[in-house]
């Protein structure tokens, strides 16, 4: 294999908007979608950020929904083991290794 993981990762990001403040679609699922756990906005503008903050405040006011989503978020595995497994799977998919 002649390409490094970093090179392969960079290639995979060519079509992703990685400008400062950009939202990477698919990373966080919006609360208005099934299984969603985050407040998303597509563009980094004052209007969209303001709308997102208002949605977050509305979610907080609905304590039943807020607690349900908070419980769901707390069940997500954010450990380094999980992250490392995801990076290994990404590397293998980019290098077509199994």
Description:
With 98 residues, the protein is an all-alpha fold. It is flat, with a radius of gyration of 17 Å. Helices cover 53% and strands 0% of the residues. The protein starts with a helix and ends with a helix. Helix 1 packs across helix 4. It has one domain (5-95).
Largest sheet: none
Structurally, the number of domains stands at 1
Number of separate strands: 0
Overall geometric form: flat
Which structural category do the helix and sheet elements fall into? mainly alpha
Q: Tell me the helix content.
A: 40-55%
Order of helices and strands: HHHH
Rg over CA atoms, rounded to whole Å, is 17 Å
Treating each run of at least 4 consecutive H or I residues as one helix, how many helices?
4
Uncertain segments: 21-26
Distance between the termini: 14 Å
Please indicate the percent range of residues in DSSP E strands (runs of 2 or more): under 5%
Average pLDDT, rounded to a whole number, is 77
